[in-house]
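Why run this: before we spend reagent on co-expression, it is cheaper to look at a predicted model of the complex and decide which construct boundaries make sense. The entries below are exactly what would go into the expression plan.
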Amino acid sequence: MALDLAQLPKTEAQDSRHRALIQGSHLTKIYATSTGPLVALDDVSFDIREGEFVSLVGPSGCGKSTLLSLLGGLEERSEGTLTLNGQDLDRPRPDIGFMLQTAVLFPWRSVMENIRLPGAILGLDRKAQAERCQELLELVGLAGFGDRYPNELSGGMRQRVALARLLAHDPDVLLMDEPFGALDEFTRETMNLELLRIWSATGKTVVFVTHNIGEAVFLSDRVFVMTPRPGRLAGVVEIDLPRPRQTEMMREPRYSELVFDIRHMLGVD
Amino acid sequence: MTIAYDQSIAGDAETGRASTIERHIAQEKARARRKRMTNRLLAAGFGMFVLFLWWLFSALGLIHRLIIPPPGEVLSAFFRVASASYFWPNVMVTLSEIAAGFALGLASGVVFGVSVAMFESVRATIYPYLVALQAPPKIVLAPIFVTWFGFDEASKIAMAVVMSFFPMFLNTLTGLASVEPNAVKLMRSLTASRWQTFRYLLLPNALPTMMAGVKLCWTLAVLGVVVGEFVGASAGIGYLIHAFNFQLDISGVFVLILLLSIFTLVVYQLIENLEKKIIFWSGM
Ligand SMILES: Nc1ncnc2c1ncn2[C@@H]1O[C@H](COP(=O)(O)OP(=O)(O)O)[C@@H](O)[C@H]1O
Ligand SMILES: [Mg+2]
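The model came back. Tokens follow.
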């Protein structure tokens, strides 16, 4: 793949697609705890390209959430540099969206009002938001549920609302911390396919945290493999499976090979 | 089956289940209604039973009428008291004291609760004192308040405020503080300002706890006014109770206690109805 691209005359579009959007170098995060300093992230360096789908995998405690919080500008780093488009990434920005394992819906707001929350906070045009959020509601398969309240929804439906809310203000970067981790396997697979569909249609940059290796391989362009104590980036695996990805792909030897490579890096075998 | 699953990428088996969910919710609601009815009947039956025992014991002469007057005597005392010229002016005095004390206790509790929750410096400055002020039983203040504010309304209102402030303050503070960290994280990631976080997240999240505080605040405001009137007053229901008791008009005392209780309960119920409207989501 890389060879082919090199031989082609480079166009503007290709250039921007493969440009490093986010750059982290020597990132370290140390928490002060009651039992002394805890190195949650130790000297981690990486590039994330524009439009890329990157997964972070590793056992719990290896610093995936910490790294994602740093990328979201939600935590102060202890050492190293982190930039987005060359700008220091040290605070939350509206062009970066965050989604968590729990939907975090506000029970006093209807489904539609929850999806409208980012627009309300960022002061976006109401009329445009009303239209966009209605489309998003349909996109996540909840047309007709706008007037319901979160307490009336199942876990899968709540996560769909959270996904629509994530997209409401059209952020360029989506940071997702085990977004479907609490869902059952079937719903999770459906949601993964939906996420891929949305991603390929919008060209957003996605950083996706999971501790499911198969899921990471299935979704990603590259997988960042992380190991704990202290949290380190053990390696980066290019996923050269063709797109669009289909569930049948999980039967292919290349898929299994990649999964086993990553398992090996994690020292699971 | 496999084909159906593949096609369900955009939809979800769950959304198709909506009508089932709806029916289920309707059934649940009907069951809850029946249960409420049964509970009401039980309560009403028990009340009638106690009333009957009261009447029976009095009729058999087992209780002296100066200790507990018979039901009939209390009823006739009601007409006697309610038609007396002194009755309404005294009632109005107490009601206005309660209204003022409740409103001030509630408002100050909310203002202090919000300030302490939202501003670190305010918390550091006054929170220890607010808690320390809670230590003495507040009834000891009643005589001092009479000295400070006189025999009229002011000393009773002050008593009501002192009694009702703290639960409102503490419930506001607790409600604002008991927020899910992930929700705060979400607001931060959306670059919400402090004020936006308060308005969109902290305040609505605190409302259930605050409404519990309002109910406490209400009963304590009534208590504060009556205590104030017992200690030193020239008008009011507490003053009348004191006077009737002194004249051994026990049935008159009973009438006033019952009226005051009914009034307190009715307003309490109104607050609960309001609560259900305000925090509509908790009942879903
Ligand atoms: N706010 C915090 N304070 C102290 N320690 C923390 C905090 N957040 C995370 N940690 C610690 O940092 C390490 C990495 O945590 P985390 O990034 O949540 O891992 P992961 O998401 O991969 O499970 C863990 O040992 C965790 O206990
Ligand atoms: Mg985590």
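Chain B has two domains: 1-63, 71-282. The first helix of chain B runs from residue 2 to 7. Bring this page to Monday's planning discussion.
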